[in-house]
């Protein structure tokens, strides 16, 4: 239960972040007056406050009175928000946005948004003041590439580590005692060659041991392993069966990389961009393929807002599939005779009137809520996993266009 619930709330948080980012991207300031601050978790709040106070006094030099006032108001608002924190930010840090945005007709509106504990750690302190909010670092955190094991090696050294989201974490390194190709005088050529091969073999074993220690315990969470190095080293290493067989099965690609120190891990990730992009869509693809398979088998899948909601409430949905592009609200209506009905409307549209489909009476609006939040709340109560599906592939587009962005894979055939 706990891992399921945690997964669900993490997805929900990511969705909430995505929505805030989309909102922030829409805003524009008439001058350089929109302030963004990224605070890493190890930065003292008092240091940040001091920085904000400093910026506030420097803003007194801004020539345009309007911009000056707007920047100072934004900084005051940020300072007020920072009062709610203890000595240090919560896990992964804080991102603050504040400023006077254009609200049309020459008017401005003050907007302040605070995001606690983003999905990845804020890497460094950033103060940014511009005519737009700085959202790119947050967008990168949300572009979740999952968890990948990284191995770079040549015959001299090796490094292993993680790719977590977009962040590279070096963990362990090793260097070898493999002698160079030059043999010493007096040694027979064959003996030298044999010793050298033995040393290479030992080194590969050491590297594999290092990778096994790190990655075998995480093998079930791993989305893949990337291996880099010059040829033929990485090929010898992979073909020689040095890695634990379960890790070997997780290798999604090998790449030419010239450096095998810590910087080589970054080169490896750069070289693997296409494979990583495929991997990202691949998870979504397999969800959609399973959905279609079960749909064709009959009664093992559901789609559309109302049928999916009904199955969710009954607890019969194993996985809720939601399109990443879904931006709609659900309006819940009550008719005088106690019938509950729903209508899904575009988030930007007004709430329509509704006549009860059963008794034809005029129904009253009980509430209007984001469709995704509405469905995820039910899913969380029922222990149903939620998966967001991108529209970057055909079946993902179909989910959005043909199924209203909502579908479910059922736990069992409902026989309906
Ligand atoms: Zn009714």
UniProtKB/TrEMBL annotation:
Would you say which domain of life the source belongs to? Archaea
Q: Which Pfam families match?
A: eRF1_1, eRF1_2, eRF1_3
Keyword terms, alphabetized: Cytoplasm, Protein biosynthesis
The answer on whether this UniProt entry bears the keyword Repeat reads: no
Domain eRF1/Pelota-like N-terminal, chain residue ranges per copy: 6-143
Molecular function (GO) terms for this protein are:
translation release factor activity, codon specific
GO cellular component annotations, sorted alphabetically?
A: cytoplasm
Name its cellular compartments.
Answer: Cytoplasm
Q: Which residues form a coiled coil?
A: none
Assembly and oligomerization: Heterodimer of two subunits, one of which binds GTP.
Q: What does this protein do?
A: Directs the termination of nascent peptide synthesis (translation) in response to the termination codons UAA, UAG and UGA.
The UniProt family comment states: Belongs to the eukaryotic release factor 1 family.
The molecule here is called Peptide chain release factor subunit 1
Per the UniProt record, the lineage of the source organism begins with: Archaea, Methanobacteriati, Methanobacteriota, Stenosarchaea group, Halobacteria
């Amino acid at each position: 239960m706990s891992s399921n619930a945690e997964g669900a709330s993490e997805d929900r948080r990511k969705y909430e972040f995505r929505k805030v980012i989309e909102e922030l991207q829409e805003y524009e300031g008439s001058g350089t007056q929109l302030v963004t601050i990224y605070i890493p978790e190890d930065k003292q709040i008092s240091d940040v406050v001091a920085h904000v106070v400093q910026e506030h006094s420097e803003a007194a030099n801004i020539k345009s009175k309007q911009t000056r006032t707007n920047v100072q108001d934004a900084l005051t608002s940020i300072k007020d928000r920072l009062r709610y924190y203890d000595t240090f930010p919560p896990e992964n840090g804080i991102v603050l946005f504040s400023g006077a945005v254009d609200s049309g007709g020459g008017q401005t509106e003050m907007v302040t948004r605070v995001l606690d504990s983003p999905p990845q750690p804020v890497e460094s302190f950033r103060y940014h003041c511009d005519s737009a909010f700085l959202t790119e670092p947050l967008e990168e955190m949300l572009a979740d590439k999952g968890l990948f094991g990284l191995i770079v090696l040549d015959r001299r050294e090796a490094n292993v580590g993680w790719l977590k989201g977009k962040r590279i974490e070096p963990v362990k390194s090793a260097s070898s005692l493999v002698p160079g190709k030059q043999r010493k005088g007096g040694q027979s050529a064959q003996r030298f060659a044999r010793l050298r091969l033995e040393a290479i073999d030992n080194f590969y074993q050491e590297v594999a041991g290092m990778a096994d220690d790190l990655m075998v315990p995480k093998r079930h969470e791993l989305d893949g392993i990337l291996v880099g190095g010059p040829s033929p080293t990485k090929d010898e290493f992979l073909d020689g069966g040095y890695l634990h067989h379960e890790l070997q099965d997780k290798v999604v690609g090998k790449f030419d990389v010239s450096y095998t120190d810590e910087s080589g891990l970054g080169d490896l990730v750069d070289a693997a961009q296409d494979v990583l992009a495929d991997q990202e869509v691949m998870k979504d693809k397999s969800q959609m393929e399973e959905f279609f398979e079960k749909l064709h088998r009959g009664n093992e899948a559901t789609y559309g807002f109302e049928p999916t909601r009904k199955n969710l409430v009954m607890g019969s949905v194993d996985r809720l599939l939601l399109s990443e592009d879904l931006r709609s609200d659900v309006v819940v209506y009550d008719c005088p005779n106690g019938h509950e009905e729903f209508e899904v409307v575009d988030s930007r549209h007004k709430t329509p009137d509704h006549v009860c489909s059963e008794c034809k009476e005029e129904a009253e609006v009980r509430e209007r809520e984001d469709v995704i939040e509405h469905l995820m709340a039910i899913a969380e109560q029922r222990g149903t996993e939620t998966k967001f599906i991108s529209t970057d592939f055909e079946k993902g587009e179909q989910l959005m266009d043909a199924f209203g962005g909502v579908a479910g894979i059922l736990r069992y055939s409902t026989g309906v």
